[in-house]
Amino acid sequence: MALKKKELKEFKQILMDERNLLIKNANDTIKNEIELSKDDMSDEADLASALIDQGLSLRLRGRERMLIEKIDGALERIESGEFGICIACEDDINLNRLRARTVTTMCIACKEEQEQRERHYQG
Q1: Would you state the pLDDT for residue 56?
Q2: Integer-rounded Cα radius of gyration of the chain
Q3: How far is CA 66 from the centre of its chain?
Q4: Contacts of residue 63, Cβ cutoff 8 Å, sequence gap at least 6
Q5: Which phi and psi angles does 92 have, rounded to 5°?
Q6: Under 8 Å between Cβ of 98 and 104
Q7: How far, in Å, are 21, 34, 41, 48 from residue 28 at the CA level?
Q8: pLDDT at 9
Q9: Residue 120 pLDDT
């Protein structure tokens, strides 16, 4: 059961909104959190705390960058007609799964199987 045009439009809007929010957050980080102020460097404890905060912000932005890449991939799949189709088994991905994890590329059964294989190789 392929997704309807209305559903595709809905998912596209969700993805675009999330992408725009992530980019706004990244721009805010660049403007407000990257540069250390003179107050942050008043003593070693303040400097250490500011550097830890800065590192956490940068790691968070790195994760958000990866999510933006996944969002871009989902938007490309919408345009190519492949959105909502599992990359492993080529079955339709359940609509509820897509609503819960819009960037997903796998149906729940294939994702669970992949995670089980990963656990097996790690153990």
Answers
A1: 76
A2: 20
A3: 6
A4: none
A5: -70, 140
A6: yes
A7: 10, 9, 21, 22
A8: 97
A9: 87
Provide the residue type at 69 as one letter: E
**How crowded is residue 34: how many other Cβ atoms within 10 Å of its Cβ?**
11
Distance of CA 33 to the CA centre of its chain: 21
Query: What is this structure's pTM?
Result: 0.77
Question: Tokens 């990963």 appear where?
Answer: 118
> H-helix or E-strand containing 32?
helix 5-32
46-72 CB burial, b ≥16 within 10 A, e <16: eeeebeeebeebeeebeebeeebebbe
User: What separation in angstroms does the CA of 2 have from each of 84, 103, 109?
Assistant: 8, 17, 18
Helices and strands, number each (H, E), in the chain: 4, 0
Residues of the chain under the 70 pLDDT cut: 1, 30-42, 47, 123
Token pair in block for residue 11: 């998912």
